[in-house]
Write a structure and sequence with these properties.
Blueprint lengths: L4 H11 L7 E6 L4 H6 L4 E2 L34 H6 L11 E3 L2 E6 L7 H21 E4 L11 H4 E4 L11 E4 L6 E3 L2 E3 L7 E3 L9 E4 L10 E8 L2 H5 L5 E8 L5 E9 L10 H16 L15 E3 L5 E3 L2 H11 L8 E2 L14 H4 L18 H8 L5 E2 L37 E3 L6 E5 L9 E4 L18 H4 L7 E6 L2 E2 L3 H7 L3 E11 L2 E5 L6 E3 L4 E2 L4 E2 L2 E2 L53 H20 L4 E3 L9 E3 L1
Parallel strand pairs: 1-30, 2-13, 4-12, 12-14
Antiparallel strand pairs: 3-5, 4-31, 5-18, 6-7, 8-9, 10-11, 13-14, 15-16, 16-17, 19-20, 20-21, 22-24, 23-28, 24-25, 25-26, 27-29
Helix pairs in contact: 4-7, 8-10
């Protein structure tokens, strides 16, 4: 059932009472996908041999041992020349169905506590459901069987192309034991068989390993490992990491590992939303958003360095999505990749341009992370998937700012509504949090308002007790409160005017009156119109409140989190305010509780909030982090 925007927003308000995540802007959760994937071999299934069992794949990148390997035909050409060669043939919609992702837990992860098992199961189930709702594939027939690595089980291959057994294995490796994916041993039951052909021209072969049963109704096999691995211990800011380890004959990844660091599942600061987003991030890597697979994307994937040395992805859907997002007609507007290591490819978007994206190198508070149109466009351009682009979330960062947005030459412009200069307290660009003007290694000197350590969430009523300013600045915390740049000071607190009249981020209530139209309420005041892009005065206060333009009452999917339900992907297919009449515009607000939630219900909610505030005060140590993430045996169990 799909609720109307007003009801969806109110449901989110009720659930927010149980959210206890606090963000530490200085602690970045780290993504080590590129590092881990580079250390992990990939087996690619090769075409079926005409006279017998399949000729199986070999390690990715070893061209001489992989008959199915091909270099990009566009490598080394100019961007303009490459673009002229593109011929995109999207998959036939009638042949595609939602991708079936099966999770398989190795026995090494079976010693989890009941609470850990529940947390993992809930996060993975929700992440898989979301990804399956976004991606469709051309399903193969029969069960999924993974390939064996011929470089492991075979001592030598027949290399004479005139022989009947060309590229088949001539002698077995006596030390061959098993297939692995990262540190996970793949069960024989998941693997195809393999044969040895001792004579170059004899069709008679010896079965080295029998054919496994395979996995029915499976398009991608996710080995899920929950352990405190060496990488987890070495990188305390890593939540999870992943690799892909098998591809089919078309290059599409069909198996991978996601390692979830076990220590991150315990403690009062555990966040279901963060875990779901992390698994989605890692799944996107394993499914193809990887620099190790860019050259195999079938829709003419092109990576190229622009004039400033920034590596970009130039594919039709990506260019179109970025043009639409930035409101630019630049035909060369490729999506920039993280350039922390200049001139080299990365498996993440550049944070200065696509901050907030699910595939940025840094993921922050879960309320700020988006499954964005540019990421979905990239998955579409792999050629392996049909992507439900209508389910993309609003990527507010940089919306309509033009082709030069996020460049080092423009991010220090004081007029930018997204970047900041100097230091001080302001508002995060989604206006759900107060923020501090800071930079990090991925911003390369550019500064943005990052959520504060403590009490940054305007939408948490329990943060009221953290604010020592509310008596004189009029702050109000609650589910319908947002951050505003303000210099307000109560007129009867004149002693504060001289020292506290600077413009800062402060939390006030708001309610919508239409698209990009809203009112605000300050402590003790009536509702006052706040003209987008302008300022307003409040009776009883000195100073002004700045009213952000194109931030509030414009994106229906930018809301406080709904408890443990990740607020995405949301399909924005119509104007949530289009049914407003002129009379309704005066009073209607999607952030106002329905009429039936009054009286006794309000008392119950207030009591719950008070209780929660007391609990939070006793143990909340403010240790959630920003996420710099990444995209890892015999008896196993299905999740």
């Amino acid at each position: 059932m799909v609720l109307p925007p007003s009801q969806r927003l109110w449901v989110g308000m009720l659930a927010v009472m149980v959210t206890v995540v606090v963000e530490f802007p200085g602690a970045l959760q780290k993504c080590i996908f590129d590092e881990v994937q580079a250390q992990n071999g990939v087996v690619r299934a090769a075409p079926i041999h005409p006279d017998g069992p399949p000729r199986l794949g070999s390690q990715a990148g070893q061209q001489t041992n992989n008959p199915g390997w091909r270099a990009s035909p566009l490598h080394g050409r100019s961007v303009r020349h490459r673009r002229s060669l593109r011929k995109i043939s999207p998959p036939t919609p009638t042949s595609l169905q939602p991708i079936r992702i099966r999770s398989w837990i190795p026995k090494e992860s079976n010693n989890l506590s009941e609470a850990e098992e529940e947390r993992v199961a809930a996060a993975v189930e929700e992440a898989v459901r979301m990804v399956s709702s976004l991606l469709s594939v051309d399903r193969g027939t029969g069960p999924l069987l993974l390939s064996r690595d011929i470089n492991k089980y075979c001592k030598f291959l027949w290399r004479n192309s005139s022989t009947a057994n060309y590229n088949r294995c001539g002698r077995a490796n006596n030390n061959y034991r098993s297939e692995t994916c990262l540190d996970v041993t793949i069960p024989d039951d998941h693997l195809a068989g393999c044969h040895i052909y001792p004579e170059a021209d004899s069709p008679r072969g010896t079965e080295l390993r029998p054919e496994g049963a395979g996995l029915p109704d499976t398009d991608f096999l996710l080995y899920l490992q929950v352990q405190a691995t060496d990488k987890c211990r070495a990188e305390p800011n890593v939540l999870a990491y992943a690799v892909h380890c098998q591809t089919d004959t078309h290059g599409r990844p069909v198996a991978g590992v996601v390692v979830i660091c076990r220590d991150r599942l315990t403690g009062a600061t555990y966040s279901h939303q963060t875990s779901v987003q992390t698994v989605i991030h890692e799944l996107f890597h394993a499914l193809g958003f990887s620099k190790h697979l860019f050259h195999t994307w079938r829709d003419c994937k092109v990576t190229h360095s622009d004039g400033s040395g920034q590596m970009r992805i130039y594919t039709p859907s990506v260019i179109s999505a970025l043009q639409k997002h930035l409101a630019s007609t630049d035909p060369e507007l490729g999506a920039p990749l993280e350039n922390l290591d200049p001139g080299k490819l990365s498996s993440h978007w550049e944070s200065r341009v696509l901050q907030g994206s699910i595939m940025a190198a840094v993921m922050g508070d879960p309320t700020t992370v988006r499954i964005d149109p540019v990421t979905l466009a990239a998955l579409q351009d792999t050629g392996w998937y049909s992507v439900n682009l209508s389910r993309a979330q609003s990527l507010v960062w940089g919306d309509g700012e033009g082709a030069m947005f996020g460049s080092l030459s423009t991010c220090r412009d004081k007029s930018s509504p997204f970047f900041c200069t100097g230091s001080g307290i302001g508002c995060h660009y989604l206006h759900l949090h107060k923020g501090e003007c800071q930079t990090d290694e991925y911003l390369e000197g550019c500064k943005v308002y990052k959520p504060l350590k403590n009490g940054s969430e305007c939408w948490k009523e329990e943060n009221t007790w953290r604010s020592a300013e509310e008596d004189w600045s009029g702050e109000i915390f609650g589910v319908d409160s947002r951050c505003f740049f303000s210099s307000l000071t109560r007129q009867n607190h004149s002693e504060f005017i001289l020292f506290n009249s600077s413009v800062e981020g402060r939390c006030y209530r708001h309610r919508c009156a239409g698209l990009n139209r809203y009112q605000i309420q300050v402590s003790g005041s009536e509702w006052v119109d706040c003209p987008a892009g302008g300022t307003t005065q409040i009776k009883g206060y000195h100073g002004l409140v700045s009213c952000p333009d194109r931030r509030l009452c414009l994106y229906a999917d930018i809301t406080p989190p709904s408890g443990d339900v990740v607020p995405f992907p949301a399909s924005i297919t119509s104007d949530p305010y289009e049914t407003l009449t002129s009379a309704q515009n005066e009073t209607w607000s999607p952030l106002r509780p329905p009429a039936e939630l009054t009286g006794a219900s309000a008392l119950c909610i207030t009591a719950a909030l008070c209780f929660l505030a007391a609990v939070v005060a006793t143990y909340r140590k403010c240790c959630s982090r920003r996420v710099r993430i990444h995209s890892a045996p015999e008896e196993h169990s299905d999740l």
